[in-house]
Amino acid sequence: MKKLLLVLLFIVIMASLFIGCNNSENNGSNKQVQREAKVNDNSKSQSSNKKYIFKIGHGSTEGSALDYGFVEFKKIIEEETNENIKVEIYPNQQLGGDTELTESTQFGNTAIAAPSSAPIASFEKEFYALDIPFLFPDRETVYRVLDGNAGQQLLKTLDGVGLKGLGYWENGFRNLTNSKKSVTVPEDLSELKIRTMENDVHLAAWKLLGSNPTPMPFGELFTALQQTTVDGQENPLNLIYSQKFYEVQPYLSKTKHIYSPFVVFINKDLYESLTDNYKRIVEDAVKEVSVMQRKFVQKLDDEAEQAMRDYGVEITELTAEELKLFRNKVTPVYDMVKEKAGAEIVDMLINEVE
Ligand code: TK8
């Protein structure tokens, strides 16, 4: 009898524990259910008064190129939806780096993100097409091609991975910095350990150039440069400045070897849940910001260059002949890109560049 009582007591305790657990689980999934309910009835009624909070994450500092874009985006969205959509911006990798942000936007934990195109290629291989070194001769061509058919075709491929592509903002042409020596020809790179973005094509290109490359998340880069785990890295001027890389990288060569844009995307289910009107507001806002943001970044790049020069960074302009030496070394990468991204998108992109 005593035994039976003990067993009963045990069952009661376990049951209450289980209910407790379940409850706290429910709290988590309740939000999900609420959001789903909101989503469903929103798409039915097409009313514009549903409330949303769009969580946005990015990897750079406040006031940087990407942050500027999202701040402008927030202003437009909140105004045009009468704050029915509120935007919360989390800078400085608070919600993770480019790879984590892509994943969390796929899952809907983050509403919107704008990672560099290079790490996105791990999620949607057609994006490797943008990793052809020296593909774009200048900014005007970049804007024309990204906003044109090839760029739009690329954005559409994101549909297949739970994302809705909205547009391209500027990070900028990337330039090499290092802590060891002035680099003017590929031979100068031998024995330099270079951090690349997490992308096989970038890794292959830097090997072909004769350096010793290693992929690394952006969030670990400053410390790695400071502790000389790596000797160099490559990023646009404005970012080299805003991330203070120049403080530990006295040499900068204007290689302009690649333009890896910020790709702005939104969780696909969230997008589908919006009324047609809100969909349009979101899409138009990203386009409107593209124009302002690109202008802003051009100014940032110029200011960054001047400020780094003043600080004492040795900035090397490369001649057309010197750049050609770099370009020749990386030509094998072209076939690799074609194999990874598919000939169709690569040909389309190259045709539109020309
Ligand atoms: C920051 C990243 C970064 C990228 C990199 O948001 O990893 O070097 O250039 O700017 O997207």
Notable features of this structure?
single chain, 354 residues, alpha/beta, 5-stranded mixed beta sheet, 4-stranded mixed beta sheet, 14 helices, 14% strand, binds D-xylonic acid
Topology:
Blueprint: H1 2-45, E1 52-57, H2 65-80, E2 85-90, H3 98-107, E3 112-113, H4 117-120, H5 139-147, H6 149-157, E4 163-169, E5 175-178, E6 193-196, H7 200-208, E7 212-215, H8 221-226, E8 232-235, H9 237-242, E9 251-254, E10 262-267, H10 268-273, H11 276-311, E11 314-317, H12 320-329, H13 333-341, H14 343-353
Parallel strand pairs: 1-2, 1-3, 6-7, 9-11
Antiparallel strand pairs: 3-10, 4-10, 5-8, 5-9
Helix pairs in contact: 2-11, 6-14, 13-14
The chain binds D-xylonic acid.
Describe this protein's structure:
With 354 residues, this protein is α/β, with parallel strands linked by helices. The protein is built from 14 helices and eleven strands. The protein has helices at 2-45, 65-80, 98-107, 117-120, 139-147, 149-157, 200-208, 221-226, 237-242, 268-273, 276-311, 320-329, 333-341, 343-353, and strands at 52-57, 85-90, 112-113, 163-169, 175-178, 193-196, 212-215, 232-235, 251-254, 262-267, 314-317. The chain has a five-stranded mixed sheet, with helices on both faces. It has a four-stranded mixed sheet with strand order 8-5-9-11. Helix 7 (200-208) links the parallel strand 6 and strand 7 (212-215). Helix 2 (65-80) runs antiparallel to helix 11 (276-311) and helix 6 runs antiparallel to helix 14. The model is unreliable at 4-46 (pLDDT under 50). It binds D-xylonic acid. D-xylonic acid (TK8) binds at residues 58-60, 66, 98, 115-116, 171, 197, 218, 235, 239. Residues 58-60, 66, 98, 115-116, 171, 197, 218, 235, 239 line the site of D-xylonic acid.
